[in-house]
Design goal:
heterodimer, A: 215 residues, alpha+beta, 4-stranded antiparallel sheet, 2 helices, elongated, B: 219 residues, 3 helices, 8 strands, 45% helix
Chain lengths: 215, 219
């Protein structure tokens, strides 16, 4: 009877820790940015590492110098800017949250052409002594499991970034393929057209109605 | 023993509170978006086929007082244009489906019904696909596992998902490489052909003009 109680208590502690450490926010979406688009994500604990990435996936611009990229800003719930990236077409970011609360991730498109941005945000938490009640101690296996989970999440993060970059590359490839075909066919037609016009012009120069032997 | 029991009950209450507070304001896993007062806000994701998609959306309590009359409508479309989910004038809703085709899935939200002009609305969207959408409670109940074993099972699921993703990325890269190499071949072929077309056209020009001048007795 005396040995059941401590085991029961330990089980509850484990379940409690598991329940709290399993809330690992992560979200991956694509949004079209016309001017400013803001996405909010809640960070549960102070000191959490918030990591993520974003890639500008779809752009219908002609020359690459037309659009250098978009600006990205992270604002903490207190209102100060935690991180900012300017003029990039995709990047990774990571910061340690100074406090818990609702963080604002904003994309700003300085030009009028709308861009589609694919982003992924993850707020990871590793349980520490601060999460527990005063008289309980931290089970190292939970810390290790949380660290493992965070490492796997970072691999998943990297994969999502790769997938978004691959998607952008695929768009560029498709565009190149179409441009090669259409511009070449247009070039041939234009060449034939121009040479026909040349011949017609020269014939007109020598035609009888203009003047006999005037050339 | 009574203090042990008290400790266990306290722990149970604490863990329940901690887990409950996470669900009281269900923002832990959701992303918040602002919907403009007119027009729609769309989010999309490129998803492969045979993937479970689970999503939950709700209006977030704002400081504005008109949250009681605000409703949102949503529509989810597959890459081929099929309507997967359509809901009008609700304060919260959810949709779940398994993707049958690979492509861009679009979820659009707009403010339904009457709403004060000039003010946007904030909605929370909890969008989970693939391994994140797996129902671990039912797996735990079926296999009768809990605690560390369940966590390790989740980690194993995550590793499997990473592996599958890697294979998917590898296949996509192979497809793209083929397109690239085809384009590379086409650029070379079309450039040489362009030179050939140029030569042919100029030869035709000269031939035609010579014939014309000979006809006109100028040569």
């Amino acid at each position: 009877m005396g040995t059941l109680r401590p085991r029961y208590a330990n089980l509850l502690l484990l379940i409690g820790l598991v329940l709290t450490s399993s809330l690992a926010p992560a979200s991956s979406l694509s949004v079209t940015v016309n001017d400013v688009e803001c996405v909010y994500e809640y960070v549960l604990y102070e000191g959490d590492t918030v990591s993520g990435n974003f890639v500008v996936v779809d752009h219908d611009i002609f020359w690459s110098s037309d659009h250098p990229g978009i600006d990205f800003t992270v604002t903490s719930p207190a209102g100060n800017v935690v991180q900012t990236l300017k003029g990039t077409s995709g990047d990774k970011f990571e910061f340690k949250a100074p406090r818990s609360g609702m963080y604002k991730f904003c994309f700003h498109n300085p030009y009028s052409t709308p861009e589609t941005v694919s982003f992924y945000i993850h707020a990871g938490h590793i349980p520490t002594e601060h999460d527990l009640a005063k008289d309980e101690h931290l089970d190292p296996i939970n810390v290790k499991i949380a660290e493992l989970r965070e490492s796997l999440e970072s691999v998943t993060l990297e994969q999502k970034y790769l997938k978004a970059r691959d998607s952008r590359h695929r768009h560029t490839n498709e565009s190149t393929r179409k441009r090669v075909i259409y511009y070449t066919v247009a070039e041939y037609l234009l060449l034939a057209c121009v040479s026909t016009l040349q011949v017609v012009y020269i014939r007109r120069l020598f035609s009888k109605s203009v003047g006999y032997n005037r050339v | 023993m009574p203090e042990r029991r008290a400790g266990a009950i306290l722990l149970l209450v604490a863990s329940l509170l901690l887990s409950w507070s996470g669900h009281l304001v269900p923002v832990a896993e959701a992303v918040w978006l602002t919907i403009p007062s007119s027009g729609t806000k769309c989010v999309s994701e490129e998803i492969q086929s045979n993937v479970v998609v689970l999503a939950d959306y709700y209006i977030v309590d704002d400081e504005h007082a008109h949250l009681h009359t605000a409703t949102i409508s949503s529509r989810v479309t597959s890459p081929y244009g099929n309507n997967l989910h359509h809901n009008e004038n609700v304060t919260h809703g959810q949709f779940a489906f398994t993707t049958s085709e690979a492509g861009n899935y679009l979820a659009c939200f707009w403010i339904g019904g009457k709403h004060q002009e000039g003010a946007g609305l904030t909605i929370g969207l909890d969008w989970k696909i693939g391994i994140a959408a797996k129902d671990w409670e039912s797996v735990a109940k079926k296999e009768k596992i809990q605690g560390v074993e369940l966590e390790l099972l989740k980690l194993e699921g995550a590793v499997q998902a990473i592996h599958d993703n890697l294979i998917y990325l590898k296949n996509r890269e192979a497809e793209m490489r083929e397109v690239s190499e085809k384009t590379n071949g086409r650029v070379a072929w079309f450039s040489i052909m362009s030179l050939g077309v140029c030569i042919v056209v100029s030869v035709l020009q000269l031939w035609h003009l010579r014939h014309y001048f000979e006809r006109k007795k100028l040569i």
